């Protein structure tokens, strides 16, 4: 896939007379490809927004250069950039006295000019973009009459209306509920794969990033940068190393996190599939580690049949049958 945006030896940060220079990240080598959704991840304050602003041409790097289609972004005019890169930042736009339709229409300005009238084709593009994010029925609402999540969807519609080969979004799913997050990530992935766009977004939502990203960029506070498909990063142990912290373990099988309990007790868990997964979830929460090992003092057997029943065996006690995970956990907590 074609590299549409790249940077070599990029140092980003802030510089002012009073406080001097703050280097946020140093020596970044990046390539953003057409047809891919790329997710930028890292802890609070590592510089995701700073990098996004720099890649979008909103601020200058301290060192290095951002190239768009091989040309330094600093050498392109604002209009040229706005035909190549659309950007959704996290700023609050509710104070701009525009309706939803008017705001999305501004996505057409690179083509029409600021004062020109929108053509029928422009209007069709605005309507199509609103429809793509499920906001058509909000077209006449003012921006300050929307929820944060609705406003976020409108900003994404504006970026779609701008029809650029590169779309950059800073935390686009931050205010969205779970179904809307999945819908938006799916839409952005389709935009990349079906329309050959390069989509870059920052997010803290690892689950959705693992599901929808073609590439993940990981940046951390130690100024290290990792890049790869979610699967390669996971299989190379890089996600575990990156996201694991004291007391928090990244589980390579489920792609989720669990907390580590130093006083955890092992328990044999017999059974498989969905029920095993959720019984294990409850066990971890209650300070037990499910194990395949046999003859441990504690054992849970998942019985086949419906409704599901569980047999709990404890040392020196009669085995008891339980009808729910809740009763099983209460019994274990009491033991
Ligand atoms: N205008 C600014 N001037 C000086 N320092 C800044 C400025 N904006 C951000 N910073 C600092 O730069 C660092 C990176 O900030 P940035 O907003 O890029 O982080 P982030 O990774 O996007 O964080 P988050 O996940 O919390 O959104 C932080 O230490 C922040 O305090």
From TrEMBL:
Residues 7-246 form the ABC transporter domain. Its main location: membrane. InterPro entries: AAA+_ATPase, ABC_transporter-like_ATP-bd, P-loop_NTPase, Siderophore_ABC-ATPase. One of its GO terms (cellular component) is plasma membrane. GO terms for biological process: iron ion transport. Keywords: ATP-binding, Cell membrane, Ion transport, Iron, Iron transport, Membrane, Nucleotide-binding, Transport. It is a peripheral membrane protein. The keyword Glycoprotein does not apply. GO terms for molecular function: ATP binding; ATP hydrolysis activity. It is found in: Cell membrane. The keyword Nucleotide-binding applies. Pfam families: ABC_tran. This is Iron complex transport system ATP-binding protein. It comes from Williamwhitmania taraxaci. The lineage of its organism: Bacteria, Pseudomonadati, Bacteroidota, Bacteroidia, Bacteroidales.
